[in-house]
Structure formats: C-alpha cells, structure tokens
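Table S2 (continued). Query chain:
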Amino acid sequence: MKSRLLVYILMMFSFAAISQEVASPCMVYMKAKQNTELLQQPELFLSKRSLARRARQSITVSNSDLPVEAHRLETVSHVVSKIGNSSRWLNAVYVTATPTEILDLLDLSFVESVQPLVGGMAATRIVELPLNYGYSNDQVAQINLDQGPHRSGFLGEDKLIAVLDAGFVGANTVTISDDLDVIGTRNFVEGGQNVYQGSSHGFSVLSTMAASMDGTYIGTAPSASYLLIKTEDELSETPEEMINWIAGAEYADSMGVDIINSSLGYSEFDDPLDNYTIADLDGRTSIISLGAIAAARTGILVVTSAGNAGGGPWNKITFPADADSILTVGSVSQFGQASSFSSRGYTADGRIKPNICARGEGAVVYRPDGTIAYANGTSFSSPIMAGASACLWQSVPNATAQQVIRALEVSSSHFYSRNEKIGHGIPNLAFAQAYLESLVNGVVLETIIYPNPFPDYLEFFFPDGEALNVELELRDLYGRTVVSDLLISKRYQAIWAPGDIIPAGTYFLFFKRGNESNVRRVIKLQ
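Corresponding output:
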C-alpha cells in the first residue's frame, strides 16, 4: 500500500521534489465518523435557523453535518507540516505534507485516504413601492426585478446571505445603507473575526445587494441580512484557499444562511503542477466543486460567478462554477449581449453553464472610498442575482433552493436557445415570481403579458408550462382587427412583435390558449 502510494506521489510531484521532502497540499479523508450520538442534539453544532432551513425543505440532519472529531484533527496536526481548515461535509482536512508525512498519515487508524490536490485558483475579481434606484436602475431593470418581487414589496427581509470573498475593506467605514444588517464576520485566512482588511473586492460585491440609498443606489436585496466571510488570500494562489472556501461555506451553513454568494473562481495555482485542466470541469473533480455540491444538498442556494476567462487561453467557466445544483452566473452588457470576458460553458459532461446571466459589464458598484463607479466582472453579476434570488425566494418562502434555480432558468431570455455564452439568458424576475408560485403551490395563474404599455413587442409567460398554440388578435377601439397571429406550441414564454406595423394607441388584445380565453387592454407606445 505504502509503496504504491509513494510511486503515485513520485509521478505527481517529481523525483526532485521527493528527494527534498517538499510539503505538498493534500486532503486527508477520514473514515466514518464515530460521534453519531450528536445527531440527537443537532442544536449543538447547527443554529436554529440552519435547522429550520433544512426542515422547510424536508432535509434531515445527517452524518455529513457532524463536525470532524477534534481528537482526529489533533492527531493529524502532530504528523504534518501544516494543518488547515477541515470540512465536515467531506469528512476531511486540508494539510501540507511531505511524502514521508503522507505515509505516516496512512498509518493512522482513522485515515481513509490521502489525496494530493491537483488543482488551482485564479480569482475572478474583477403592494407597489416607489423606489428610486438611482445609479443601479439599469442593472435592476434588466432582470425586471423592479417590476417583479420589488414591486410586490419583497426586498429580501428574513433572508440571510453569506458573502464569501477576499476582504471587505470599506464595509465598516462607508455608509451604503442606514439599515445594513451584518450579523457576523469570519476570517478563514488570517483567523479571527476581522474581515475588513486586505481587499475591498467583497465590499463592492456586497454593495450590489445591500446598498439602500434612495435616489442614489438601491441594491437587489437591501433588506436582507448578511454574513461576511473572508476565504481568499489576495497575496497568493494556493489550493488551501479552496479549503478555506469550504470551511467558510460550512460556517455559513451552521449560521443558517439561505444563500451563499461566491464571486471567486479557481483554475490555476502559483505552482503550475497544481493546475486543473478543462477536462476536470465535470462537477466532481475539483475539491471546491464538491464542497459547493455539499452546500447545495443542505438546502442552501449557492450562487457563484462563472469566471472572467472568456476569450483567454482557458476561456471556460472556473471552479466551482461547474458544480450541479448551484446557480452559475455569467455577465452581459447593458444591451443584453454576453460579455467577451465572461467565461464560457458547457461543463465537460455537457451540462448548461452558466445557468443565467446578469449585468457584469459596466456594473455599478461602491468603492472603498465611498464613490460609485463602473466595474467589469462576473464578480458583480453573481451578487446582483444572489440578491434578486433572495427577493424571489422571499415571495414564495415554501419553495426549495432548486425550485428557485428552475424558476430563474425558465424565465430567462434564451430558455429555448440556450448556449455556452449566455446559458439560459437574462432572467425576468416578474415571470420567475409567477412561475415559482405556480410550481410550488400548484396555483393555475393567468397568462402574464409584459410590458404594458409596450414599444414594439409583447412578452407572454405561461405558468403552467404546457406546450400549446396561442391565438392572438389586436382590435382597435372600434372593434376592427388590426393584426392577428398564431404562435405554435409555446410553453413557458413567447414573444410577439406586432408593434412595427401598428400605430401608437390603445388596443384590445384577444388571446386564446388551451382552455384560457381572455382579453386585455394594451397600449402601444410611439
């Protein structure tokens, strides 16, 4: 056993490295946990809010929720060069260890295996309410959040969002909201609670969600609560940061978060030997992708940036964006076009990624000096959607995280023409809200028609999801037919563009679809 492992290590890290006993990053996987009696008292390691989130989605507390036994971690720490954060979900701990230390680890009775981490990171930084969004208006309106959950008064109350990032310089000195609710902080890089150091990237990310300055800037979830977690060391690119991410996600879970936003991406390390390959984008190879999937299995909605590698040598999404069951967000411009820098899909096993897109090109954010500026990166499209998701989820609180993802995908602009650049497209939160309600509650809702007044097109959303023909007829105020059409086999959504052949004015729209017949008054703009 030991000799076979040593041969493997020699292949991975080269003879020169072995001869010098260089410590390399590894995951130490433990055998089955023995502290299962704690399952009878989950409140000892999970918050009431975390347990409530599981209960709402019929998810039971399992062995994967149990903490890694302290005595095992203590024993490992005496064997290796360095021990990092552990993962209860993976029942493993991050270490840096020499080949000799790895062999010693394998002699421990509770160690299942030791796996070198071959993978890396390249951070991708970069009732109707009268809301005046100010500078954020365009990025909110692009996803129709202002006409959807926000218009209905859902601004993220009762939702807890964890922000995993590189640092939050400015978040404790710049006022972006008089009611900013940060319930906790945690630093998994330097240790302790201080996250207001190093980078300001996390603050800019936070501002897209949490800002609430009427007339100046309103974020996508201004009434949500936030947990600020530093997992990335901005001075290095090492595999340990992926384990920090998992530790941060587990801490977020223990605090009962509903949503995690991660504006980080991983594909390369400082040490090229640790780099991933594009073939690894299968959602099951990268250690951080496994962590993201584990988080999703607890009922957390994990939202992550697709990455900023578009057009470069890598070009593809970065890890953990390849994980299934999470929401991967790409970037579009103000014109709704996929940004050139936004990382492309699909996954190596052919799944649709990114799932959806939002404004990441020319996104408006706060800077640590209190100024408002334009910024580029999927780092910002991700939190814009994380905040919007919080409001959507608040509108249908008995939905599951996976149902929220489905509603966003179905409502998106390219649902029937999805592709590797834009995924399912740009979500329409008004449509998503109606679909989610019908999906969860079994409510048969009427067809939604938007916008009204309309410029040259009308959008239709059919909450039942059945593929049916749609008969359409526009009549003027004298009852005369101006234009008619038949849309064949439409499900979920459709677009009809009669506006370029009719003059401005008021019309009656007659439509029939299946058993639904109705008439609506619509106004054509000049």
